[in-house]
Structures are given as C-alpha cells and as structure tokens.
C-alpha cells in the first residue's frame, strides 16, 4: 500500500506563517501536474535519460509531502532508469496518482 501524502513538513517550515504555507501549497499544486505530465511524455516516447531527470525532480515533492518510502522508491527507480531498466515504473505511477488525488483536497 502506498503511504499517504501529508503537509507535516510544510507546516513545520511555515510555522505560524499562513501566507508562506499557502504559497508553498500553491507551488506544489501548480508544479506537480506539469511534472507528472512531463514524466508521462518521456516514458511514452522512451526518453530514458529525460525520464530519470524528471523522476529526480519529482522525488523532492515526495519528500516535501512526507512520503519517505516513496522518496526511496523514486531514488531506486531513477537508478534503474539510468541502468536501462524500469521495474519500479508501476509503483512509481501509483505514487503519482496518490499525490494527484491528494493535491485536489488541499
């Protein structure tokens, strides 16, 4: 089962600064769908190096959203891609879908 995203890290960073918290959330909500779309475009077009690069970028969102195990999965998947493999692709896609659903609620 995929762990659930949360805003604990964002809340910790923001403290009592609600404006900063909201700006951070807005950035996540704006950037994530674009990065997810870019990822799928690279996968579809078999651009392995570009896929690894966007996975590298996305993994930081996992960390920000408190998804430590998913972050580790992304690290492993990035290395797999650089070795010409994609065994973690389906699990990675599950994480992306989980995050996409979550950001609709925040």
Automatic annotation (TrEMBL):
One example of a Gene Ontology biological process annotation: phosphorelay signal transduction system
InterPro entries, per the entry: HPT_dom_sf
Name under which the protein is recorded: HPt domain-containing protein
Record organism: Maribacter arcticus
Organism ancestry: Bacteria, Pseudomonadati, Bacteroidota, Flavobacteriia, Flavobacteriales
């Amino acid at each position: 089962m995929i762990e659930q995203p949360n805003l604990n890290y964002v809340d910790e960073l923001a403290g009592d600064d609600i404006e900063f918290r909201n700006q951070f959330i807005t950035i996540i909500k704006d950037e994530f769908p674009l990065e997810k779309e870019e990822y799928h475009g690279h996968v579809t077009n078999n651009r392995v190096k570009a896929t690894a690069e966007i996975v590298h970028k996305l993994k930081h969102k996992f960390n920000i959203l408190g998804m430590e195990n998913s972050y580790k999965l992304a690290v492993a998947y990035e290395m797999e891609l650089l070795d010409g493999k994609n065994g973690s692709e389906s699990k990675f896609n599950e994480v992306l879908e989980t995050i996409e659903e979550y950001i609709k609620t925040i």
